[in-house]
Fold:
Amino acid sequence: MGAAAAPKAVVLLSGGVDSATVLALARRDGFECYALTFRYGQRHALEVEAARRVARAQRATRHEILDLDLRRFGGSALTDDLPVPKDRAPREMAHGIPVTYVPARNTIFLAFALAWAEVLGAADIFVGVNALDYSGYPDCRPEYLAAFQTLADLATKAGVEGRQRLQIHAPLIAMSKADIVRAGLVLGVDYALTSSCYDPSPAGEACGRCDACTLRLKGFAEAGARDPIPYAAAGVSAP
Structure:
């Protein structure tokens, strides 16, 4: 008898540190990974190319990039003509919901992942949300994922017929950014391929000052690792 086929999983892949690490964790756990990325009108659209690089480097079985135009709605500094907050301290980030929150973004992304998983016959979805070193987004919390899990149990034909019990995996949910970086380095994640900045330069350099850059730099510094991506701000680097 031949070896059993690897289980399929849909992995939400933004191209940043967290999603690149989640893809590596899913592969480590023996899943055949189908990466899903969204070009949703985000001002930092170069993250889509980063996701393409990461999917290729980690040998995802398939990588789909879907186009949505959330700029039609606006309501976020990432999808509207609003300034991206800069130079906020981590303590400040921990309070309130910042203007970089994109309304219902994770719900939209997980809904598409759920649809693709049902078509693939995949029982697993991986998402890189984090509730420790994050910017206060309501759709990155454990209770949100639990609620979506309940929805997933009710929302699909495969679930109703009992053929598929979908499981949403959020392996980074309780990890610090430093722990995430350490885990990825152990698994050989090439973070030079990733992009996290909300407001990169035209040349693709990270600003070093937005919330995403601040948390990324903090994570690499606390992990004792060098952040390999270029930064536009002079003197910005992790040791």
